[in-house]
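Complex 452.
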Amino acid sequence: MSTVPHLLHPLPVTIESISTEGNNVTFYVTEPLPTGCPNCLSPLFTKSGNSDDRLYRDEPLRDQHVTINLKRNRYKCKACNRLFRATIPGLDTRRRVTTRLIEHLEAHFHKRSNVELAEETGLLEKTVREIRKEFYDRLFAERQTVTPKVLGIDELYKNGEYLCLLTDLENHTLVELHIGREKERVVQYLRALHSPKDVQIICIDMYSPIRNACRTALPHAKLIVDKFHVMKLINDKFTDALKSLKRDPLKSLSRKDTTWLKTTYTRLEPAAQRRVDTLLQGDKKLNLTHQAKERFYSLYSAPDRAHAGAILDDWLKFVADQHLSEWHRTADTIRDWRDPILNFFDTSPPITNAFTENMVQKIKALNTKAKGLDFETLRSKALFECVPKTRAVKRPRINPFASRPAGFSAGFSIPPYDEVIENLGIPLHELFRVWLKDSNVPNLPEKSKSCV
Ligand SMILES: [Zn+2]
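Predicted structure with zinc ion bound:
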């Protein structure tokens, strides 16, 4: 029995017996004697009434639920006549659970659901949910929000409503998740930031109410449209144009043709380029639409804002001059967003909303995994559980044997031979030679010779 008390360490209880039934282990334990009355600290007290059994849930033991059956006593202080119970550290004061079980749950909340944790520990799902909520409330109270210098904004759709996600694009952290993406609401959210004047750059997608909200709430901040949203606008437009061409029974475009037409021309293999050339030569409308796409694609290869501005203006002129009616609405949008598009070229390194998009996908996955969460739970889970993927810091690979200072060697290997023999005196074979010469010993034994 000497090792048994360690099973419930650090609970200061004495294990009287253990029973196992199904997936549950029950420890029958007795409490330690109190040191004194908690009210007057008097060490004089007597037991009062009968003891009663109380069941506590503890951390699982080798995949088995653990129940602690604790025999509790009541005591009466002889000095102040008050009734009291012994204080047992390690037991939660609000629930019949041990504090280490709560710590176990808190350590696993970020990767396991309430149902999974309830199954593992033997608690009710409702109890796990309550403990999780208290844990998040504590985290919210301790949370220190820092206003990002580079703010990312994106929206996501969940159960019939839009949510607005704010991120710190510099430090790759989630700032806040809000309900709604209407201008007035977003203005409120931005003004509620800890220090709105600290925001220097905002990266958004091409959604006008959010742009207008940013201009109202944070007029000093530079707006940048996410590069991938701009490219997506052009790609979608070109795909639509191809679809309308495909509907013409006289023009047959295979799936491969469509893929090649959508791909940037310079990235195609020579054979694919020849096929695209043939397709474009035979169809003037397709040729112009393809040119519109290709000309826009060169925008993000521009070395600076001035070049990018020139490419954009050329593109707008091309669409207008060639009367590409299906591109007119896209051209209007691009014209409307010209400044935020070109602001992309003012920052180094370039700023995109890729991190925000990544977090949106993670939050959607959280919601799907839990089969739909209420907003507050989703918000807590998003803020405390959506941890971005960490990237290993790349260190340059150095050959340990190349260009090291003299005398350096890696690990415990023997340094180069010519450094070992420094200052070791006269070589042994010289000593033997002198000794043999003086002592007239005719021959050394074979073994000694080999030692020389
Ligand atoms: Zn007392």
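The chain has four domains: 4-139, 150-226+353-385, 234-346, 400-452.
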